[in-house]
TrEMBL record:
<dbReference type="Pfam" id="PF04198">
    <property type="entry name" value="Sugar-bind"/>
</dbReference>
<keyword id="KW-0805">Transcription regulation</keyword>
<dbReference type="Pfam" id="PF13412">
    <property type="entry name" value="HTH_24"/>
</dbReference>
<dbReference type="InterPro" id="IPR051054">
    <property type="entry name" value="SorC_transcr_regulators"/>
</dbReference>
<keyword id="KW-0804">Transcription</keyword>
<keyword id="KW-0238">DNA-binding</keyword>
<dbReference type="GO" id="GO:0030246">
    <property type="term" value="F:carbohydrate binding"/>
</dbReference>
<feature type="domain" description="Sugar-binding">
    <location>
        <begin position="63"/>
        <end position="314"/>
    </location>
</feature>
<dbReference type="InterPro" id="IPR037171">
    <property type="entry name" value="NagB/RpiA_transferase-like"/>
</dbReference>
<comment type="similarity">
    <text>Belongs to the SorC transcriptional regulatory family.</text>
</comment>
<dbReference type="InterPro" id="IPR009057">
    <property type="entry name" value="Homeodomain-like_sf"/>
</dbReference>
<protein>
    <submittedName>
        <fullName>DNA-binding transcriptional regulator</fullName>
    </submittedName>
</protein>
<dbReference type="InterPro" id="IPR007324">
    <property type="entry name" value="Sugar-bd_dom_put"/>
</dbReference>
<dbReference type="GO" id="GO:0003677">
    <property type="term" value="F:DNA binding"/>
</dbReference>
């Protein structure tokens, strides 16, 4: 009977704490126990199964899909957003809204943010961010060359400058082409002191926000001119590439696809990205499913923000 008497008292302590909402000090005084004993009994209540914690996900959240993504890809964290349509425009809008909230609540003072400049989803995130009060970020660093077709070039610079303003940071622009005509042209552009100043900050980035692209470039990237030729893209696909992060390509197994084309890209490499403390990827859509799967297997992404349709495809 000793054990049942012990459990009865533990149950009473748990009831007073969890149901009657009494403080531990009140329980201790009422039952003539020490507060340390009350604390130990509350812990015992959990180990004995007297108290069980239930988490009931609210409607519109997808904790099961998030857990499945974490387990399937060894991903530290995943955010799956609700979306009424499996359509790129709707998906980008919902991911952007969720990512904006996430950045607002997790941004640390003095953060150095790296941001890929040609992502429509990241642009949607920036559109939804509220101006930060108090100590903000230190720099927002553009991690892929932003020069291109003048009709869309402002997209890259606006994205970086606006994010910097909203987070109280200083923008560090990469005002060169993302893809140069040759390795020699790349070396010449990188000799510019302003370009060098920005690229020197790659190693100091504490938070990188990246998009994930399919081998076939997005409409925005194609219009910018920062792409490879159709023949070069076909060669990449033949080499097994399924997608890219800032024009650094990889296959579905998460292996980097290295080609001489890398020597023409001015931007952050996957090796540099892997050294960043926190990498958040924003991506969704049917056309990007294989690319996202490959990106997650690279082992450089700490959090994926995606939509429920894409999450279902990734975990099927």
């Amino acid at each position: 009977m000793g054990r049942i008497n012990e459990l009865r008292l533990i149950s009473r302590v748990a009831q007073m704490y969890h149901v009657e909402h009494k403080r531990q000090a009140e329980i201790a005084e009422h039952l003539r126990l020490s507060q340390a004993t009350v604390s130990r009994m509350l812990k015992r209540a959990e180990t004995e199964g007297i108290v069980r914690t239930s988490v009931i996900p609210p409607a519109g959240t997808y904790s099961d899909l998030e857990q499945a993504l974490r387990e399937r890809f060894g991903l530290p964290e995943a955010v799956v957003v609700d979306c009424s349509e499996d359509r790129d425009g709707a998906i980008m809008a919902r991911i952007g809204e969720s990512a904006a909230h996430l950045l607002e609540i997790t941004l640390s003072p003095g953060e150095i943010i790296g941001v890929s400049s040609w992502s429509q989803t990241i642009f949607k995130m920036v559109e939804n961010i509220h101006p930060q009060k108090g100590a903000g970020a230190r720099y927002v660093v553009q991690t892929l060359g932003g020069m291109g077709d003048p009709s869309v070039q402002t997209h890259a610079t606006q994205l970086t400058a606006r994010l910097a303003k909203l987070t109280g940071a200083e923008p560090k622009l990469l005002s060169v082409q993302g893809v140069t005509s040759s390795r020699e042209a790349k070396l010449l552009m990188m000799a510019d002191p302003f370009v060098r100043d920005t690229m020197d900050l790659f190693g100091a980035i504490t938070l990188a926000i990246v998009g994930i692209g399919a081998v076939e470039p997005s409409e925005l990237l194609a219009r910018s001119g920062n792409i490879f030729s159709a023949r070069e893209l076909a060669d990449l696909a033949e080499a097994g590439a399924v997608g890219d992060i800032s024009l650094r390509f990889f296959d579905r197994q998460g292996r980097m696809v290295k080609t001489p084309l890398d020597d023409r890209v001015i931007g952050m490499s996957l090796e540099e990205l892997a050294k960043v403390d926190r990498v958040i990827a924003l991506a969704g859509g049917k056309a990007k499913t294989d690319a996202i799967a490959g990106a997650l297997r690279l082992g450089v992404i700490d959090m994926l923000v995606t939509d429920r349709f894409t999450a279902e495809r990734l975990t099927a």
